[in-house]
Amino acid sequence: MRYVYNFGEGRTTGNASMKNLLGGKGAGLAEMSLLGVPVPPGFTVTTEACLEFYDKGRISDEIWKEIVQAVNELENFSKKVFGGKENFLLVSVRSGAPISMPGMMDTILNLGLTKDIIASYKGSDKEKFLLDCYRRLLSMFGDVVVGLDNEDFEHALSEVKERAGIQTDSELTVENLRELVERFEEIYDKNGKIFPQDPFEQLKDAVEAVFKSWNNKRAVEYRKIHGIPDDLGTAVNVQEMVFGNLNNRSATGVAFTRDPATGEKELFGEFLVNAQGEDVVAGIRTPSNIKEMRLVFPDSYEKLKKVAAILENRFKDMQDMEFTIENGKLFLLQTRNGKRTAYAAVKIAVDLAEEKIISKKDAIRRIKPEDLVKVLSPTFDLQEKKKAVTEGRLVTVGFAAGPGAASGMVVLSSEKVEKLAREGKDVILVRNETSPEDIVGMHLSKGILTARGGMTSHAAVVARGMGKPCVVGAEELIIDYNNAVVYSKNKKIAIKEGDIISIDGTTGEVFTGAIAVKEVSILDETVPIVTTVRKLLSWADKERSIKVRANADTPEDARIARSLGAEGIGLCRTEHMFFAPDRIRKVQEMIIFDGERRRIAIEEIKLFQQGDFYAVLKEMDGLPVTIRLLDPPLHEFLPKGENAIRRLALELGIEYKDLSKRIEYMSEINPMLGHRGCRVGITTPEIYKMQVEAILEAAAKLTREGYSPKVEIMIPLVGIVGEMQKIREEIESLIESFETDSPVLIGTMIEVPRAAIIADQLAKITDFFSFGTNDLTQLTLGFSRDDAGKFLPLYIEKGILDKDPFSTLDKEGVGELIKIATNKGKKSNPELKVGVCGEHGGDPESIHFFNTLSIDYVSCSPYRIPVARLAAAHAQIGD
Amino acid sequence: MRYVYNFGEGRTTGNASMKNLLGGKGAGLAEMSLLGVPVPPGFTVTTEACLEFYDKGRISDEIWKEIVQAVNELENFSKKVFGGKENFLLVSVRSGAPISMPGMMDTILNLGLTKDIIASYKGSDKEKFLLDCYRRLLSMFGDVVVGLDNEDFEHALSEVKERAGIQTDSELTVENLRELVERFEEIYDKNGKIFPQDPFEQLKDAVEAVFKSWNNKRAVEYRKIHGIPDDLGTAVNVQEMVFGNLNNRSATGVAFTRDPATGEKELFGEFLVNAQGEDVVAGIRTPSNIKEMRLVFPDSYEKLKKVAAILENRFKDMQDMEFTIENGKLFLLQTRNGKRTAYAAVKIAVDLAEEKIISKKDAIRRIKPEDLVKVLSPTFDLQEKKKAVTEGRLVTVGFAAGPGAASGMVVLSSEKVEKLAREGKDVILVRNETSPEDIVGMHLSKGILTARGGMTSHAAVVARGMGKPCVVGAEELIIDYNNAVVYSKNKKIAIKEGDIISIDGTTGEVFTGAIAVKEVSILDETVPIVTTVRKLLSWADKERSIKVRANADTPEDARIARSLGAEGIGLCRTEHMFFAPDRIRKVQEMIIFDGERRRIAIEEIKLFQQGDFYAVLKEMDGLPVTIRLLDPPLHEFLPKGENAIRRLALELGIEYKDLSKRIEYMSEINPMLGHRGCRVGITTPEIYKMQVEAILEAAAKLTREGYSPKVEIMIPLVGIVGEMQKIREEIESLIESFETDSPVLIGTMIEVPRAAIIADQLAKITDFFSFGTNDLTQLTLGFSRDDAGKFLPLYIEKGILDKDPFSTLDKEGVGELIKIATNKGKKSNPELKVGVCGEHGGDPESIHFFNTLSIDYVSCSPYRIPVARLAAAHAQIGD
Questions:
Q1: How far apart are CA B734 and CA B606, in angstroms?
Q2: Smallest Cα–Cα separation from A372: which of A522, A503, A516?
Q3: Can you point out the beta strands (E) in B204-310?
Q4: Left if phi > 0, otherwise alpha if psi is -120 to 50, otherwise beta: which for B641?
Q5: CA dist., res. B492 & res. B508, Å (int)
Q6: Which of B436, B437, B448 minimizes the C-alpha distance to B477?
Q7: From A679, A723, A794, residue closest to B683, measured CB to CB
Q8: Which of A47, A124, A715, B324 is the most exposed place for a label (fewest CB within 10 A)?
Q9: Is B837 a catalytic site residue?
Q10: Which residues of A are tagged catalytic?
């Protein structure tokens, strides 16, 4: 035989490696047979037969002869006759492509049953069973082979049940079933179709239907989207029926070799006594937990456990098995790698490695880095969330910008957040978008929801940095600040300030009302999954070559980062410290005043900063800490709106008019391209001077106390050699006057395209480059990340962009600039250290790209460090 | 002799080519002698002697020997004795470096005069003359050789005159002069100095002083700024004195061979009878017009005319000559290329070429392209402007953003401009900055003044495009819109709306009150200078290889552009047409409404656009016209401020609240990086569809009428291949349905850095690139041109940047991207046409750079086309 491969005890001609020829399901059935797992016998028609079918336009005589011969062999093996009245052989027909693919014809059960066979059991115990099998065959065959409308069959079934006054299919009497079969036959008639009474004709039609389904619209589209070649073809599996619905010693079920939710190593699944496969899926009767099988079918349960071990060992992964018990005998119908939660995936991969079933490298490869964040984030109770959806409480779905789940009262301003949070209230900050002024409010919120912005808007970036659940770009929400109400555009839902909502930052969902949250703390090593993750990451660390640092601004962030494995701080944003309530006033004085009052304000800020730097450097003792000098435009520190300005004017003792004019003068049309970064360092040199002195003083103090601070000073937004030169000279002269022992590196962020282009010149006077990929992306593409939400989603929908370039690095454009700059920079200064400190530093796909360049380290928010460590290992060992 | 070269009739050993050795002045004197021009005899001590002086720290014996010998030869030649009591020889000593350089010691006259000589003429006619010469010698020598304070001499002179009750120096009696000499000697005494009575000692000290002045502070700084090498050294010219103050048959004067203001070919200058050189400069007596010399000194006048012709012929340029008439005999003291106005420069260069004195290429080389704009712009009457300065009416000096001069009443809003301009008033629009809504207002103003913005702010760009005088970035002005007053920050000047001001866009000056304006129309060929400019440009056109197109949005612009020599339109901004009062409402309807009302609005706009394109294409018949599809963000077309929004809501019949929410929703944080350009084309495809249809319909109509429209459709802000692909496909399908004969090119602006990086891919589906260097500069440097005014001036002051990158292309950064993109693009698509349509397309230095790349054309505002044509010729033939 060339086009047909048998399987079943002692008659198996295929194996697991023949997936391309036999399809996934066929290869699995063959392999199970070889392993001695009880499988109903049958045969697989190969994918080559499918291709031959497309070539010829019909099933060739040669193939059909092989199929008929295979049926004959199956008859001999099972000692049954296909179409025979007694001891009749019924089969299932299933498709099985090399790659699992939705949209194709799935299953026809009970094939081979005819009216003649039923007639010969008329009045016997078996009649009802056979009629039930037959009506199922009629509808399945009608739907998937003949192309009748399944609705018609469903409709007839409902009518019969209604007229008989019964709820479930299993209550159907013989009479009901007879009527149903008649009604089903009428459907065939009405459409000018006939259900063939020749079993071989049934089989031929069914095989052809499977072949044809390879090219139906959904399948073709699926292949197109997923890049699956069109010339693979599908196999067809023909298998003797076993009946879980034969009697009470029969059952059907699905089982996982390990818990797909928790990863625990124990059989997991459910079964239904006296039922056929679809009944479990249909959910009409509630199935029993698989553990109860131990009582009801103890032998089968033990057998299933053994089978589970055999299959895991063979397929080297947790298996999802379909089984049937017929008259107390266990049969496996299918096995495949089981789907699982992120949580279970981690647990299973690590366990399998420790059980020596797979290698540690494989364990690393199996975990999507992103899954680590999910594992370590709080989640909603699944049942409660389902309930909320059912109750219509899902308001909208925005971008899932910060994983985790949170419930709390809606608060529309950061000031109110501060007040309510101090009263112990759980609050969700809801804004059109956030700005640096909201930092404290965000910090005190349980979660953040914005109506605008994308994955790297201010809200998203800061929330991820804080490890807060965050949903952004919920564009359907309309926030009416004046009336303190949030409206949903379509659904006419009005959420008042103070109402409770729940946001899922892992999915982007926004709900009204509360949903219970399950918390996980990555820092709590008593939590088993935390230990497991840490084990996996320690394996990953041995493989990766790219270092991982953290973007951390506070001692708390630094501590978390270090405990999550950060090998330094790649970005410490000094200005985030400016927004603390006790400091912002001083910062405002520094900006507003000239001369002596400015000098005094700067002195006071310097004391604050010195303390900040001292604490951060102490936390990171011995590890490099890259401190970025002031970056945002100064106007970001000044209030907006008349009331706030009036308040500040009063506090500073100046005229409202003067202050308001000053603020108006400082405002910018495109702040992103404005007077910020080293431009402020050039125009107001006393600020950088103050910051550098604060850094050096902090480092000197630590050195005196026996610590080893490793300071790297980073100058933002450099695009011109002269900027770097001027500021470096000033810093160096300060360092000289300090006479510190520990060397201080001076580097620049590369975030302006021009800096990348002149990297060779810059590198000569620079100790390190750090690619600020957020701003570099904004400038290279000309996208404002605060505004791009208006067109980016459509760009991705229309395929103009594959991904949000603020989440995953645009390799062709931004990546090319990074490559040019890295090559030029390292060539011109071989000592140059190169890192990445944008959002992309924590994105696995981007890390893969960075790993192809001579990038020394990536830096990301503390909570993404596990992701980055794992992704860096992936990049090195291959996925 | 090695260190000294004689000059004078029959004794000249140098010539004009020996500038490096003899300095400019020395070489000129030698050459004049060779040409038979009457020059008082003398000799030049070389620059090598100067270097030797610096080497030895003193004048070596060898050099001094040569100088003494040269004096002896001069004595023999003039038959006078240096230091002799009768027939004494007096000389002048002047510095003369190879490159003219301010700050060095200039001139000492009457050297060689001593008290002995004067004593021997005591009581004679000559005594007064000699005393006058001596007191001059004492003060000049004291000032520049000895280092005494010139103020002391001036003070003494004033006192003596005051005591004698006389006004002018020439009224000084012998007694007065004696007293003065005594007072001067006291000044020497008081400072412990002595005026040497040995003429050779005077000479040695003077020569040494000249050498030393080569390294004085001002000279060193000047060389540093202008990149002149420090090791050139200066020469010293020693020349027999001739005395214009000898008697009434004597005179002194300066003359230009042509009029330095108008370029007319006739002697121009002034002279003073019975006077010495400084008297003309001192301005105590009013000199006479040179033409009067014809009557007073007819022979000398004729002689001077001949000399002028000889010198022009020799030096091939208009000459600025100093002369003295002694006893009726003419002597030339100096000749050099004369400074002139831009106007005269053009006239002279063209005339000299036509007189075959210079080649046409040289004529081209001699005119700075920028000067053409000055020549063709209206200017203030010079006398009136001087008067305004004297009267303290100069308020401030901003950036000279649009050449030309204008007076008019201050108006603070475009609406008011429209009203007043219709009443026939001359108005100057004064704003903090302008926006596209101000287009009409700007068009109706005589000039534009903004308190903010740089050379490429909206106001500057649009004003230059319109050829309007414009001053921007007058940061000292504070505009109080509420009270309709403009304040000057420092000078406490308050200009009320309605007051008259005058702005000079060629210099950046802002005056209160009116100043008379002299108009020039480049289109008026009856104006002689216009003919001259056109002649020069026609020569330039033959030399250049880069083509010149215009940025023109209206038929008027197109007509002007064509008449100024545009070879096509490189940028026709379709949206500028949207702001016309009869259209903006429809545009707003298109933006605000969906469905049917939008469709209707779009249909109406299409009619407008079709008419616009028809007219522009007709004007440019046969020449390519690049039409850019909509570029600005849609919110730019919507009103700002509650009143305007309320008005629009009322007109459109919608709720104020809804409209205001819509506008709020559309607002952007960084509009430069926002939802604009092809992004709008993708999200709202009906707008581009409408525009393309309007273009195609206009072209089809013209073709039917026998015209040859050459349409190039340009898609703005492309950064991603998919953007170009999608829009190109849509345009192509529209073209197909139109079945036009004439080919339509489809290209893209390169203004996003990413576009430059992926130029190879873009070029494959693109017929032309046009570098939008304004936006490309903004994005490559990360500078918002609207905001950069806060730090750019300081950057240039501190030398971080050489020039404003919005005026002159940043070659290292932006230029490198342009180079990459041009090379990649042309390699991938050899048919690709490449142009530049940013502001830099009209900047000479940038054009030089573009000429080094494979750029096919530049495009600039109509009024800059002459500049671009000339600059392109310069780039090709070398300056």
A1: 15
A2: A522
A3: 235-240, 251-256, 268-273, 288-289
A4: left
A5: 20
A6: B448
A7: A794
A8: A124
A9: yes
A10: 458, 837
CA distance A583 to A606: 11
Q: What's the rounded mean pLDDT across residues A747-755?
A: 98
Mean pLDDT of chain A: 92
Residue of B439, B766, B704 lying closest to B587 (CA atoms):
B439
Region at A82 (left for phi over 0; alpha for psi -120 to 50; beta for the rest): beta
Please give the structure tokens belonging to residue A96.
């099985």
Residue with tokens 């050139």: B232
Strands (E), B338-404: 379-380, 394-397, 399-402
Please judge whether A754 and B478 are an interchain contact, meaning their C-beta atoms are less than 8 angstroms apart.
no
Please say if the pLDDT value at position B676 is more than 90: yes
State residue A237 phi and psi, 5-degree precision: -105, 125
- Cα distance between residue A396 and residue A490, in whole Å: 10
Q: Is A542 exposed, middle or buried (0-12, 13-18, 19+ CB in 10 A)?
A: exposed
B36 Cβ contact list (under 8 Å, min separation 6): B9, B310
Which residue in the list B50, B133, B678, B837 is annotated as catalytic? B837
**Is the CB of residue A465 less than 8 Å from the CB of residue A442?**
no
Of the candidates B332, B140, B338, the one whose C-alpha atom is nearest the C-alpha of residue B253 is B332
Nearest Cα residue to A589 out of A634, A630, A628:
A634
Report the Cα–Cα distance between both ends of chain A, in Å, rounded: 38
Closest CA to A463 of A421, A511, A430, A485: A430
Per the CB < 8 Å rule, is B787 touching A723? no
Which tens digit of pLDDT belongs to each residue from B41-53?
999 999 999 999 9
- Overall pTM surpassing 0.80 (yes/no): no
Q: How far is CA A469 from CA A446, A509, A515, A807, B512, in A?
A: 7, 11, 14, 17, 60
In the sheet that holds A319-326, the strands lie side by side as: A288-289, A268-273, A251-256, A319-326, A329-337
Which member of B758, B780, B799 has the closest CB to residue A722? B799
Distance CA A364, CA A536 (A): 7
Cβ–Cβ < 8 Å for A673, B782: yes
For residue A73, the surrounding DSSP H or E stretch is helix A61-78
Six-digit token string for B699: 């072209």
CA of residue A422 relative to chain centroid, distance: 34
Q: Return the number of CB contacts < 8 Å for A and B.
A: 181
The type of residue at B246 is L
How many Cβ atoms from other residues are within 10 Å of residue A471's Cβ? Answer: 32
> In Å, what is the CA distance from B726 to each residue of A601, B681, B761, B824?
55, 10, 14, 22
Q: In B142-273, which residue ranges form alpha helices assigned H by DSSP?
A: 150-164, 174-190, 199-213, 217-226
Q: What number of other Cβ atoms are within 10 A of residue B299's Cβ? A: 12
- Contact at CB, B794 and A682, closer than 8 angstroms: yes
**Short-list B418, B780, B468, B867, CA closest to B460:** B468
Assembly ipTM = 0.78
A666, A758, B858 from B781: Cα distances, Å: 20, 11, 22
Q: How many CB atoms lie within 10 A of CB A830?
A: 8
Q: Are the beta carbons of A791 and B719 separated by less than 8 Å?
A: no
- Per-residue pLDDT tens digits for A540-598: 999 999 999 999 999 999 999 999 999 999 999 988 778 888 899 999 999 999 889 99
C-alpha dist (Å) from residue B303 to B30, B259, B309: 19, 18, 10
Chain B nearest C-alpha distance from A683 (Å): 7
Task: Give bridge partners of residue A711 from the DSSP assignment.
Answer: A625
CB B579 within 8 A of CB B442: no
Determine the Cα–Cα distance for residues A57 and A52; give it in Å rounded to an integer.
8
